[in-house]
Amino acid sequence: MVDxxxxxxxxxxxxxxxxxxVYLSVAIGTQHWYQYSSPTVRGEANVSELRSLYDEFMSGxxxxxxxxDTLFRLNGTVGLWWRCVLVPPSAHWNKExxxxxxxxxxxxxxxEQFTPKYKEPGNHNSGEDMLRTYLWRCQFLLPLASLxxxxxxxxxxxxxxxxxxxxxxxxIGVLHLLAGLCSLATVCCYLAGMDLLHxxxxxxxxxxxxxxxxxxxxxxxxxxxxMAAALLVWAARSHSQNYYRMTAYRVA
Length: 252
Description:
By secondary structure, the protein is an alpha+beta fold. The protein has helices at 4-29, 44-59, 64-73, 110-113, 130-163, 169-200, 213-251; strands spanning 34-37, 77-78, 82-87, 102-107, 208-211. A 5-stranded antiparallel beta sheet has the order 4-3-2-1-5. The model has no long low-confidence stretch (mean pLDDT 83). Keywords: Membrane, Transmembrane, Transmembrane helix. InterPro entries: CLDN1, PMP22/EMP/MP20/Claudin.
């Protein structure tokens, strides 16, 4: 028999865990982690240059400098798996009047995620920047690890429900704590990587960068996982202490 306090804690922990997992999943699948605000396209020369950058972005080979410059100049957004630019339709590139902008995206392939970063983006002779390389790899591996830990915790919890046992609850709480730490580390790695990128690739004049809502979703998922972990650990410890007290009382 489970005390009502423990049952309530478990239900709240499950709700928090589901919310955190949904938030993190949405954050992984969207591109609004970091966004750039660029000035309006003006002049024939400027239009030609930007169109060339856009064509290279959409159909050229993967190159950090090329896609970074395009993101800077075309109101780009970049996430863990997507990079996007905001451009006018093809027929409106050369028009001064404001046209409805279209979001064009490309995804990072798995080999691209493991591509080394260089001390000077685009210059392969400048030497590999180990810190930026491993920050980039961590930022896409850690959220997957977080989701994997939550799925494992869910499977263990499902088996525990079938067996009507609270014994695995402590382990499930620890898995949620690790998942929360992975989510937090993802955001930290991403912010550190973007800061280092902006140090080696200066933003053009009148171009501003800001954090996007996808990053905030990932950031919110971390404390939600940790709160779920705290409730699960509390329920497991309290139930265990109660059980031993009742056992000792019956023996006495």
